[in-house]
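A reminder from the course coordinator: this example appears on the midterm review sheet, so study it carefully.

Given structure:
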């Protein structure tokens, strides 16, 4: 009797698990070029299940062959998105460097103050705060500094007279590791025409890693923060500080809970 009950509920459990996994995949890829493809695959999966239930052998055979080919096609077409997802699986905490909360708050204050002043002067800047995933390739593309963070140093790097003002800086812990670094540009196509190279670089580094990217537009002086491939417009220094505190301290609080 227990075997008969288990045989009855087993397919239901399997379907529920598959739908949960597929839903999480759709949420992860939302806003990327892979999203519409996965929506289409969802409809095909429904057709596949219906064909099995109704016993449509020919249709079932065709869909089975199609899914086998589509897996290879997806691996080729969306290798970047898959690489991002696999990289994020190992993320356990935010700041890889073991700093006290008070030290992180001081770093946030220095960064927020520098960014706010650069914004007022309409001086463009791009800052990536490294978390779990190392930014080795971007560091190698720039000029190594390994200097202690300060608001004044950040402002001087991005001043028009500085030879390091092009590109971005990378922060690890309480140090500025490198300046004039190149970041990967986002490959998303659903951007407004006003989105410039700095915006795409900020989004790109946050798509491919778990870094937080902060940027100031040279044209408008607007401040934006990119995290997990999403760009958020920041209205003032207080909002920027609050957002950085949320992003940099939230994971630590969850870990210590």
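Designed residues:
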């Amino acid at each position: 009797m227990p075997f008969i009950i288990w045989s009855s509920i087993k397919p239901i459990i399997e379907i529920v698990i598959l739908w949960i996994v597929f839903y999480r995949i759709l949420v992860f890829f939302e806003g990327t070029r892979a999203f519409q493809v996965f929506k289409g695959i969802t409809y095909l999966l429904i057709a596949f299940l219906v064909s099995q239930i109704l016993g449509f052998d020919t249709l079932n055979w065709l869909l089975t062959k199609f899914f086998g080919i589509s897996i290879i096609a997806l691996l080729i077409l969306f290798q970047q998105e898959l690489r991002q997802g696999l990289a994020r699986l190992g993320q356990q905490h935010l700041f890889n460097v073991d700093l006290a909360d008070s030290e992180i708050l001081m770093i946030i204050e220095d960064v927020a103050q520098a960014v706010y002043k650069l914004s007022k002067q309409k001086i463009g800047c791009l800052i990536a705060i490294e978390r779990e995933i190392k930014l080795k390739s971007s560091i190698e593309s720039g000029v190594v500094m390994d200097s202690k963070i300060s608001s004044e140093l950040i402002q001087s790097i991005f001043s028009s007279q500085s030879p390091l003002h092009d590109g971005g800086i990378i922060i690890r812990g309480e140090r500025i590791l490198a300046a004039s670094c190149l970041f990967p540009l986002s490959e998303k196509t659903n951007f407004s025409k006003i989105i410039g190279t700095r915006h795409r670089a900020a989004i790109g580094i946050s798509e491919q890693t778990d870094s937080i990217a902060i940027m100031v537009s040279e044209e408008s002086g607007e401040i934006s923060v990119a995290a997990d491939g999403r760009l958020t417009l920041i209205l003032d220094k207080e909002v920027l500080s609050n957002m950085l505190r949320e992003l940099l301290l939230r994971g630590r609080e969850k870990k210590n809970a």
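Confidence is low (pLDDT under 50) at residues 89-94. The CA atoms of residues 121 and 221 lie 7 Å apart.
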